[in-house]
Amino acid sequence: MGARRWFCCFPKETFTHRPHSSPSSDQLSHPTSSAPPAAPPFVSVPTAAAGVTKEMGAKLPYAHVDARLRALAGQAEGFGRHAIGGLHGPIYHVTSLADDGPGSLREACRIREPLWIIFEISGTIHLSSYLRVSSYKTIDGRGQRIKLTGKGLQLKECEHIIICNLEFEGGRGHDVDGIQIKPKSRHIWIDRCSLRDYDDGLIDITRESTDVTVSRCHFAMHDKTMLIGADSSHITDRCIRVTIHHCFFDGTRQRHPRLRFGRVHLYNNYTRNWGIYAVCASVEAQILSQCNIYEAGQKKVVFKYMPEKAADREEVASGWIRSEGDLFMNGAQPCLIQGAGVESVFNALEHYPTWTMEPASVALKEVLQLCSGWQALQRPADW
């Protein structure tokens, strides 16, 4: 099947704020292959007041990353933008669907050196225990259809991980997440994954893990979808920073995400038919929600506030949410709390210079249903 490219899904006009700064060529070099090509300029809509100008035919997120195998490295938008995965390592070919042993995914992930992991086989890998991923790994599912079941991936005290184009379904057991990121992991990019039906979370980011981007993922058939920040006693989670964009939360019940302490930037996501609320701000959370689509089912409350007491504070407090350009459909009720705290929510431009975003619309909603999650992509060549 031919490759499905992100830019083919967006016929709409977009807007530009300032060009994206790609990693320098020496950052993206590889000892046995030429460096990935320089990224074309991205487009951005930080806020309506930022001097945005219209530009016809501008590129949209990641149109270039499927041109070469390693072109993913260093190209995430948002807080996870520095993730290079296994850029500087050799290719590891997964040839077995066994839980462990020669040619298995588990064998590749325990190797301490950088690796770019690709699959020479499609099918289901039944994990009997968490599969722990060591630093500087790219798990690249393009070109095959790989489903992980039983348990999930564990990113523990690691850095520079890219997880692309995989399926996660049917994780069983106490504290079993699809992708569990804790503690103290950083520079993570999760892109184009489909996640559903785990006993705990689909993606949990806690205990001082930070600088994470989750993009173009599809979440379904689940209750507690994404927890960011462990609990009110883990005050060191104040360092957490996560970007979530162009994702489709498809009837999942709650936590899209639920945040404690950290900072989360949500943009161009589509969340529909939640069962309790869409997005939750708990203790000291700062959530910036820009140009997202919230389409209610029976439950109408979009933004929920859950006050808690931080371990080093006397007062009970919730966090703050700033909504800009969001689209509320089918009677969805924002239920935003106004006050001085809204202005204290971070400005994304203070953290990264550009991100790709278009106004929330019905057309964007249709695109996200097609282009999020696992995709039938050809694997790019490594040249």
UniProtKB/TrEMBL annotation:
Q: Which pathway does UniProt place it in?
A: Glycan metabolism; pectin degradation; 2-dehydro-3-deoxy-D-gluconate from pectin: step 2/5
Q: Quick one: signal sequence residues?
A: none
Q: Which SMART domains match?
A: Amb_all
Q: How cofactor binds (record note)?
A: Binds 1 Ca(2+) ion. Required for its activity.
Q: Which residues cross the membrane?
A: none
Region of interest (Disordered), residue spans: 16-41
Q: Which InterPro entries match?
A: AmbAllergen, Pec_lyase, Pectin_lyas_fold, Pectin_lyase_fold/virulence, PEL
Q: Which Pfam families match?
A: Pectate_lyase_4 (PF00544)
Q: Which prosthetic group or cofactor does it need?
A: Ca(2+)
In the Enzyme Commission scheme, what number(s) does this protein have?
4.2.2.2
Q: Where is the composition biased (Polar residues)?
A: 21-30
Biological process (GO) annotations held by this record are: pectin catabolic process
Determine if Metal-binding is one of this entry's keywords: yes
Name the UniProt record assigns to this protein: Pectate lyase
Organism (species): Musa acuminata subsp. malaccensis (Wild banana)
Q: Lineage of the source organism?
A: Eukaryota, Viridiplantae, Streptophyta, Embryophyta, Tracheophyta
